[in-house]
Amino acid sequence: MPNPPFIVGNWKMHGLSEAVSVAEEIARESRKSTARLAICPPATLLSRLSEALKDAPHIELGGQDCHYEAQGAFTGDISATMLKDAGAGLVLLGHSERRHGHKEPCSQVALKVKAALKAGLEPMICIGETLSERESGRTHEVLRRQLRDSLPAELEGQRFHVSYEPVWAIGTGLIATDDQIRDAFALIGKVLDKRFQGHVVPHLLYGGSVKPDNAQHLLSLEGVGGLLVGGASLKAPDFLSIIRSADQA
Ligand code: PGA
Questions:
Q1: Is residue 165 annotated as a catalytic residue, yes or no?
Q2: Per the domain annotation, does 213 fall within a domain?
Q3: pTM to 2 decimal places
Q4: Structural domains in the chain (count)
Q5: Residue nearest to atom 1 of ligand 1 (CA)
Q6: Is the pLDDT of residue 162 over 90?
Q7: Rounded Cα distance, 208 and 172, in Å
């Protein structure tokens, strides 16, 4: 049986107290969904969502990043253990807004992945090329490097996910073409198979300007096992519409 699609909302740095009711609406209206569902709110909302959604175990919660140490003198950082303690079951790592905005190298992403595993969180590792990397014909090279250097050997036999997010498609309304997505997914699948030799079947997700009107099509593309949704996960009706697309996929 293939895995049901995994639909993950990445709220980024959005969400004050009122957002709890958005999550509650998503939870209420998605009870019958057969997809696997998760919301990654800002860390300040994790405990509150965990409490508000305690009767909605079909919505998992995730962090958006973590430090690679479990604790220590790291002002402003959050550890994987803390995310777990606040109710998260997974954590996004290596998102392009971390890689580029915070200059996080692959080696740091790999350390964070190890920390997440140690804390009992499922890591979702994001990879993707910039526009200039694509235009200079380096997409495969970049994806191979990110997979090699951001995924530590400790992932062997563990549950984890990889999300392909072309940097130029994030928050821009631009979407990768079907051929670009098929090509990237084929490469990622091949690299992971070789590296982990069929021991794990991680969910491969697509992210970057996923909207209600393109979700079903994206999920129909070979290899796309889920969607990482930014902007369109902030409004319950949009995210619910994407979830319904997953149920029909
Ligand atoms: P977007 O963001 O859907 O707003 O493009 C996706 C992401 O960054 O995970």
A1: yes
A2: no
A3: 0.96
A4: 1
A5: 230
A6: yes
A7: 8
